[in-house]
Amino acid sequence: MKKLTQSLILAGIMSVPALALADGKIPTISEVLDASGVTMTGYCDVAYNAMNSTGLFTSATPGVSYPAGVAQNTHIFDTPGAVSSKDYSAFNLQQFAVTIAKQPKEGFGGLVNLTTGQDAVPIASTGLGGGNNNHVFDLTQAFVSYATGPLTVIGGKFATLAGAELITSPSNKNYTHAWMFGWGPYTHTGMRATYVASDMVTLIAGVNNGFDQVTSGTGGKTGELGIDITPSSLFSLATTYYQGKGMISGTTGTGKYLDMVGTINATSQLNFVFDWANASQGNVLLPSGAIGTAKWDALALYANYQVNDKWRLSYRNETFNDKDGFRSSLTYTAALGGTGVIGNPVGQKLKSNTITVGYAPVKNFELRGEIRQDKSNVNSFLQVNGTGKNTQMTYALDAVYQF
């Protein structure tokens, strides 16, 4: 990664003499980067988030502070430091991220993406900070690329193809993330080839260490296949499939993950998106106590309306059916109610409705106000008094600045 970063910066430095000679002025950093084909972008995401619950599942250990994204958080990313003794309420430095890239249409290039802030913990890969609660600086992406004609090949650590939502905050319409994003893959380490067959069809294939694994615990490899179809400007469909042994960190069995994202552009101001996923993971503990294959599926529906240059509205409806409790890491406790075996997984069906209002007074800055309601078919949301409840509410104000 160090050599890749140095190469990208060196390309910009080499352009300084030519720029200076052109008009006799010392060029700005921006002018140097533009002349060399190197881009540098970034953003800062800060939020205030309040909930009428602890932000933890009932199987959380009492008194323990949970970083965002680890097992027992009812949300991913936006509840860092949640504890069982109080309703969640905190200011969060979600992300400060910078991306430096040189990706020409022909020849070699590369990209480095660095992320710091509270989101660095949940996005960290095994072997590169994953599982470390003090991990606050993440090498989110770092890869080299080679492009020739319709074919581009990359090798290193790169973002997943799966899902409608992304790690990068400005790319998402909502402040909070869907469960299917948080319990899906973030990044992969390996190789990926992308072939643009036509204006309507793009084919993708690759092999990697699995979901969020720089180093694979099993040594197994995961295959990646994708096809993007855009028959018109009104509709597009992206389908991605992953399969491999040890696909999810900490597992040894075979995992499978199918994801489909469709976008309908109804007008220049209104679009609809659906994201459907169906997945399984073998050789894991099931609610019965047996070792077998855990299954889950999810569907998220989005509606986004750009009112004018400054105001927009976004709505998300999600259902996440964690049939065997594998992705939500919910285990049976007395607070959950009903019957079960203490310590064994418990399946649950989660639903959420999220409304987000965005206000952008200037092009590179947006304020987002959000209300979210979550429901479960079991009493999985931990209350301060130690009992479980099947609903929780979230109220948030988010600020995103891009540069």
Indicate the topology.
Elements: H1 2-13, H2 16-23, H3 29-36, E1 39-51, E2 89-102, E3 107-116, H4 120-123, E4 137-148, E5 151-159, H5 179-182, E6 187-196, E7 201-208, E8 222-232, E9 235-245, E10 254-265, E11 270-285, E12 291-306, E13 311-322, E14 348-362, E15 365-376, E16 381-382, E17 388-389, E18 391-402
Antiparallel strand pairs: 1-2, 1-18, 2-3, 3-4, 4-5, 5-6, 6-7, 7-8, 8-9, 9-10, 10-11, 11-12, 12-13, 13-14, 14-15, 15-18, 16-17
Describe the structure in your own words.
The longest helix has 12 residues, at 2-13. The chain has a 16-stranded antiparallel beta barrel. A two-stranded antiparallel sheet has the order 16-17. The radius of gyration is 22 Å and the shape is globular. Helix 1 (2-13) crosses helix 3. It starts with a helix and ends with a strand. It has 403 residues and is mainly beta. The protein has 5 helices and 18 strands. Mean pLDDT is 92; it is low at 8-21. The chain has one domain: Porin, CATH 2.40.160.10. The chain is 9% helix and 49% strand.
Brief characterization of the structure:
Strand 14 and strand 15 (365-376) form a beta hairpin. Helices cover 9% and strands 49% of the residues. The longest helix has 12 residues, at 2-13.
Report the helical percentage. Answer: under 10%
Mean pLDDT rating: 92
Strand content: over 45%
Radius of gyration: 22 Å
What are the segments in which pLDDT stays under 50 over at least 5 consecutive residues? 8-21
* CATH architect. name: Beta Barrel
Multimerization state: single chain
Strand order of the largest sheet: 1-2-3-4-5-6-7-8-9-10-11-12-13-14-15-18
According to CATH, the fold-level topology is: Porin
CATH class: Mainly Beta
